[in-house]
TrEMBL record:
It comes from the Bacteria. The lineage of its organism: Bacteria, Pseudomonadati, Bacteroidota, Cytophagia, Cytophagales. The keyword Hydrolase does not apply. InterPro entries: Cupredoxin (IPR008972), Secre_tail (IPR026444). Transmembrane segments: none annotated. Residues 129-197 form the Secretion system C-terminal sorting domain. Pfam families: Por_Secre_tail (PF18962). Residues 1-23 form the signal peptide. NCBIfam families: Por_Secre_tail. SUPFAM superfamilies: Cupredoxins. Keywords: Signal. This is T9SS type A sorting domain-containing protein. It comes from Hymenobacter jejuensis.
Length: 209
Protein backbone atom coordinates (compact mmCIF):
# COMPACT_ATOMS: atom_id res chain seq x y z
CA UNK A 1 0.00 0.00 0.00
CA UNK A 2 2.85 2.40 0.85
CA UNK A 3 4.50 1.67 -2.49
CA UNK A 4 1.25 2.36 -4.33
CA UNK A 5 0.73 5.64 -2.44
CA UNK A 6 4.28 6.81 -3.17
CA UNK A 7 3.90 5.97 -6.87
CA UNK A 8 0.60 7.86 -7.03
CA UNK A 9 2.13 10.95 -5.40
CA UNK A 10 5.09 10.87 -7.80
CA UNK A 11 2.76 10.55 -10.78
CA UNK A 12 0.70 13.53 -9.66
CA UNK A 13 3.83 15.65 -9.17
CA UNK A 14 5.14 14.76 -12.60
CA UNK A 15 1.82 15.62 -14.24
CA UNK A 16 1.10 18.82 -12.31
CA UNK A 17 4.59 20.35 -12.40
CA UNK A 18 4.34 23.52 -14.44
CA UNK A 19 6.75 25.43 -16.68
CA UNK A 20 8.67 26.66 -13.61
CA UNK A 21 10.36 23.26 -13.52
CA UNK A 22 12.17 24.29 -16.72
CA UNK A 23 12.86 27.93 -15.88
CA UNK A 24 16.34 28.97 -14.85
CA UNK A 25 17.32 31.44 -12.15
CA UNK A 26 20.09 33.93 -12.97
CA UNK A 27 21.83 35.60 -10.03
CA UNK A 28 22.94 39.24 -10.16
CA UNK A 29 25.24 40.13 -7.26
CA UNK A 30 24.73 43.57 -5.72
CA UNK A 31 27.73 45.22 -4.07
CA UNK A 32 28.99 48.75 -3.34
CA UNK A 33 28.41 49.94 -6.04
CA UNK A 34 27.91 47.52 -8.91
CA UNK A 35 25.62 44.90 -10.38
CA UNK A 36 27.56 41.78 -11.37
CA UNK A 37 27.24 40.68 -14.09
CA UNK A 38 26.22 44.02 -15.52
CA UNK A 39 24.50 42.46 -18.54
CA UNK A 40 22.65 39.15 -18.61
CA UNK A 41 20.64 37.29 -21.23
CA UNK A 42 17.72 35.07 -20.24
CA UNK A 43 14.72 33.48 -21.93
CA UNK A 44 10.98 33.92 -21.36
CA UNK A 45 9.95 32.32 -18.09
CA UNK A 46 13.39 32.64 -16.51
CA UNK A 47 13.88 34.33 -13.14
CA UNK A 48 16.42 37.07 -12.38
CA UNK A 49 17.40 37.30 -8.73
CA UNK A 50 19.28 40.29 -7.31
CA UNK A 51 21.33 39.18 -4.31
CA UNK A 52 23.06 41.46 -1.80
CA UNK A 53 26.72 40.50 -1.38
CA UNK A 54 27.64 42.89 1.41
CA UNK A 55 28.61 46.50 1.85
CA UNK A 56 27.17 49.50 3.63
CA UNK A 57 24.91 51.09 1.02
CA UNK A 58 21.30 50.62 0.01
CA UNK A 59 20.52 50.25 -3.69
CA UNK A 60 17.06 51.29 -4.94
CA UNK A 61 16.87 49.41 -8.24
CA UNK A 62 14.70 51.14 -10.82
CA UNK A 63 13.65 50.01 -14.29
CA UNK A 64 14.51 52.54 -17.01
CA UNK A 65 11.35 51.60 -18.92
CA UNK A 66 9.01 51.10 -15.93
CA UNK A 67 9.03 47.31 -16.29
CA UNK A 68 8.82 46.88 -12.49
CA UNK A 69 8.22 48.87 -9.33
CA UNK A 70 11.48 50.11 -7.82
CA UNK A 71 12.80 47.79 -5.10
CA UNK A 72 15.66 48.29 -2.65
CA UNK A 73 18.47 45.82 -2.03
CA UNK A 74 20.33 46.16 1.28
CA UNK A 75 21.09 44.23 4.46
CA UNK A 76 17.43 44.33 5.52
CA UNK A 77 16.17 43.25 2.07
CA UNK A 78 18.99 41.11 0.65
CA UNK A 79 17.18 39.59 -2.35
CA UNK A 80 14.53 40.34 -4.94
CA UNK A 81 13.37 38.14 -7.81
CA UNK A 82 11.47 38.94 -11.01
CA UNK A 83 10.18 36.49 -13.61
CA UNK A 84 10.60 37.77 -17.17
CA UNK A 85 7.91 36.44 -19.51
CA UNK A 86 8.26 38.82 -22.46
CA UNK A 87 11.14 39.26 -24.87
CA UNK A 88 12.92 42.61 -24.92
CA UNK A 89 15.60 44.76 -23.33
CA UNK A 90 15.21 45.81 -19.70
CA UNK A 91 17.82 48.38 -18.61
CA UNK A 92 17.88 49.43 -14.96
CA UNK A 93 19.95 51.43 -12.50
CA UNK A 94 20.49 52.25 -8.84
CA UNK A 95 18.84 55.61 -8.14
CA UNK A 96 21.43 56.41 -5.44
CA UNK A 97 24.60 55.50 -7.31
CA UNK A 98 23.78 55.63 -11.00
CA UNK A 99 21.49 56.73 -13.80
CA UNK A 100 20.32 55.14 -17.06
CA UNK A 101 23.52 53.84 -18.69
CA UNK A 102 25.76 55.57 -16.15
CA UNK A 103 27.44 54.47 -12.92
CA UNK A 104 25.65 51.60 -11.20
CA UNK A 105 23.40 50.20 -13.90
CA UNK A 106 22.64 46.96 -15.71
CA UNK A 107 20.78 45.48 -18.67
CA UNK A 108 18.65 42.34 -18.85
CA UNK A 109 17.95 40.97 -22.32
CA UNK A 110 15.12 38.48 -22.68
CA UNK A 111 15.76 36.61 -25.92
CA UNK A 112 13.53 34.11 -27.66
CA UNK A 113 15.57 31.22 -28.99
CA UNK A 114 15.07 30.40 -32.65
CA UNK A 115 13.67 26.86 -32.90
CA UNK A 116 15.97 24.33 -34.52
CA UNK A 117 13.42 22.46 -36.61
CA UNK A 118 15.74 19.72 -37.94
CA UNK A 119 16.65 18.89 -34.36
CA UNK A 120 13.09 18.45 -33.11
CA UNK A 121 13.00 15.28 -31.03
CA UNK A 122 9.98 13.21 -30.07
CA UNK A 123 9.54 12.94 -26.28
CA UNK A 124 9.80 9.15 -26.57
CA UNK A 125 13.37 9.54 -27.87
CA UNK A 126 14.54 10.86 -24.49
CA UNK A 127 14.08 8.55 -21.51
CA UNK A 128 15.07 8.86 -17.85
CA UNK A 129 14.93 5.76 -15.67
CA UNK A 130 14.33 4.52 -13.09
CA UNK A 131 11.77 7.17 -12.25
CA UNK A 132 11.59 7.73 -9.28
CA UNK A 133 15.35 7.33 -8.96
CA UNK A 134 17.71 6.89 -6.04
CA UNK A 135 21.45 7.27 -6.53
CA UNK A 136 21.75 7.09 -10.32
CA UNK A 137 19.58 8.14 -13.26
CA UNK A 138 20.14 6.52 -16.64
CA UNK A 139 19.43 8.73 -19.66
CA UNK A 140 18.80 7.22 -23.08
CA UNK A 141 18.94 9.32 -26.26
CA UNK A 142 17.92 7.36 -29.34
CA UNK A 143 18.18 10.06 -32.02
CA UNK A 144 21.76 10.01 -33.43
CA UNK A 145 21.17 13.18 -35.49
CA UNK A 146 20.53 15.18 -32.32
CA UNK A 147 23.71 14.24 -30.48
CA UNK A 148 26.30 16.46 -32.17
CA UNK A 149 27.12 19.47 -29.98
CA UNK A 150 24.61 18.15 -27.46
CA UNK A 151 24.36 18.24 -23.69
CA UNK A 152 21.95 17.21 -20.95
CA UNK A 153 21.06 19.51 -18.05
CA UNK A 154 19.41 18.72 -14.73
CA UNK A 155 17.51 21.61 -13.10
CA UNK A 156 15.96 21.63 -9.65
CA UNK A 157 12.51 22.97 -8.76
CA UNK A 158 13.99 26.42 -8.02
CA UNK A 159 15.30 26.69 -11.57
CA UNK A 160 18.94 26.19 -10.58
CA UNK A 161 21.18 24.21 -12.93
CA UNK A 162 22.70 21.41 -10.83
CA UNK A 163 24.20 19.03 -13.42
CA UNK A 164 25.47 19.19 -17.00
CA UNK A 165 26.62 16.25 -19.11
CA UNK A 166 28.20 16.39 -22.55
CA UNK A 167 26.69 13.91 -25.01
CA UNK A 168 28.98 11.91 -27.29
CA UNK A 169 28.36 12.38 -31.02
CA UNK A 170 29.44 8.91 -32.11
CA UNK A 171 27.04 7.37 -34.64
CA UNK A 172 25.26 4.47 -32.98
CA UNK A 173 21.69 3.43 -32.40
CA UNK A 174 21.40 5.19 -29.06
CA UNK A 175 23.45 6.98 -26.46
CA UNK A 176 23.16 6.01 -22.81
CA UNK A 177 24.46 8.30 -20.07
CA UNK A 178 24.72 7.67 -16.35
CA UNK A 179 23.93 10.63 -14.12
CA UNK A 180 24.97 10.35 -10.42
CA UNK A 181 22.35 12.01 -8.21
CA UNK A 182 22.98 10.52 -4.76
CA UNK A 183 24.31 13.86 -3.49
CA UNK A 184 21.26 15.85 -4.62
CA UNK A 185 18.24 16.49 -2.36
CA UNK A 186 15.10 14.47 -2.98
CA UNK A 187 12.50 16.23 -5.10
CA UNK A 188 11.27 16.89 -8.62
CA UNK A 189 13.83 17.84 -11.27
CA UNK A 190 13.65 18.86 -14.91
CA UNK A 191 15.97 17.12 -17.36
CA UNK A 192 16.69 18.89 -20.67
CA UNK A 193 18.38 17.70 -23.85
CA UNK A 194 20.06 20.56 -25.74
CA UNK A 195 21.60 20.72 -29.21
CA UNK A 196 23.68 23.79 -30.08
CA UNK A 197 22.24 25.44 -26.98
CA UNK A 198 18.62 24.79 -28.00
CA UNK A 199 16.30 22.61 -25.92
CA UNK A 200 14.99 19.78 -28.11
CA UNK A 201 13.44 17.46 -25.51
CA UNK A 202 12.46 17.46 -21.84
CA UNK A 203 11.65 14.95 -19.15
CA UNK A 204 10.85 15.15 -15.46
CA UNK A 205 12.47 12.89 -12.91
CA UNK A 206 11.74 12.42 -9.21
CA UNK A 207 14.66 11.76 -6.84
CA UNK A 208 13.98 9.83 -3.65
CA UNK A 209 16.46 8.84 -0.94
Amino acid sequence: MKTFTRSLVVLLLLVLAGPSAWAETVIIKVTDNAYTPQTVTVHPGDVVKWQYEGGTNSHPTASDNAAWVTFTINTANPTNSITFNNAGSFPYHCTFHGAPGVGMYGVITVAVATPVRPMAVAPSAFRCYPNPADGVVTLTLDNPQARANASVQLINSLGTLVRTLTVGSEAKTEATLTLPVADLPAGLYGCRWLVNGQVVARQRVMLIH
